[in-house]
Model the fold of this input.
Amino acid sequence: MAAAARRSPGRPRKGESKLSRWIDASGMTRDQAAENLGLNRTYLDMLCRGAWRSRLALALAIEKMTGGAIPAAAWVNIAEMKD
Done:
């Protein structure tokens, strides 16, 4: 993955989400992605690690930014909705 080679050295990522991989593959920096989504970098990093879940409005903004590569439905846990 060529985009990963451009990443600045630092602490290795423990896990990468689909959003994290998309940002790396797009050539966009996390700072640029955070700005496009109206977030601060820390919040975006937590989303990329899967530590936090997206609210609906943000999930729709991510879907729009990624051109549908990450649909808003990807942030919804279907099992929770069955109750």
Observations:
- DSSP finds six helices and no strands in the chain.
- Confidence is low (pLDDT under 50) at residues 78-83.
